[in-house]
Amino acid sequence: xxxxxxxxxxxxxxxxxxxxxxxxxxxxxNRDYKEYFPTGPLQYIVNQxxxxxxxxxxxxxxxxxxxxxxxxQAQALRMAIARALCENNIEDRPALKKEGFLMRDxxxxxxxxxxxxxxxxxxxxxxx
Length: 128
What we know:
The chain has helices at 33-36, 40-52, 70-88, 93-99; strands at 4-10, 13-21, 26-28, 31-32, 59-66.
């Protein structure tokens, strides 16, 4: 039985995925993904690559997620699953690439600057 090992990243989140042929069971940090991602939109994000590649219920996924917040982790997991599906079947690549699942999203939080309360916000100007 072949194990496909890939990695996905988004913001500060890192997803390490081990995918094997199976029945569609997704385990994230030793918990079911529906328990780990309680909201519907996050569960949908995780399942998107399987829907696009027509592979729902064909793969078992074991994922280790680290860093960032819950949304970044879901998107990192989506990227890792999409990469694993490409590694298994190269014909799925154009469809996954068209949806943007194979491109790392480079957007990060802008750093706070000194003399300002946040990255872009300024303290209120006082004329007198």
